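Before a colleague's protein record goes any further, I have to sign it off. What it holds is a sequence and that sequence's fold in token form. My question to you is simply how this chain folds and whether the tokens agree. Thanks in advance; the entry in question is below:
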Amino acid sequence: MAVLPPEFYDRPVVEVAADLLGCSLRHGVCEGVIVETEAYHESEPASHAYRGLRPHIRNLFGAPGTAYVYRSYGIHALVNAVCEAPGVGAAVLIRALQPIAGIELMRRRRGRADAELCAGPGRLTAALGIGLELDGAPLQGPELEIHARPAGMPHSVAAKRVGITRATELPWRFAVADSAWVSRPRP
């Protein structure tokens, strides 16, 4: 499948979050179909961009189609796709993948082989070997790539975001309906 160009991301973050379902994320030999996303925008208080541009989040305000990778709770690196125009703090958190390539390596990295291998943003980055060094990397390669989905949009659902305490009412979490790979709680 073709790699998504930067123009794909240069539009409202909520639209991009929904449209990333069914696309695939690749790092090295590991790849998975995106089955869950969440949108974040500088206009709402759950976003890292809400308090404005700061040095440690500068890539969140960068060019559309780049990665914003940050450390969550001092443990996990989480990967996001930067959206909208440069200077706008907007990104899509990739929350879950259905593994399709490099699965044995993912299992070794995570020490498990079940449906939770990539069900959650920290789990998927651990499985794919994505770390903070990829913050600001283009999503068109060579290290990270997001490929267009095959023809047709998967049946999806929208729900409230999880794991946050602010702006929880926004239905900006998107998931492939009935996917066993979506993180808990399932929408």
Remarks:
- The chain has a mean pLDDT of 93.
- Residues 107 and 114 are 9 Å apart (CA to CA).
- The chain has four helices and eight strands.
- The domain at 6-176 is CATH 3.10.300.10 (3-methyladenine DNA Glycosylase; Chain A).
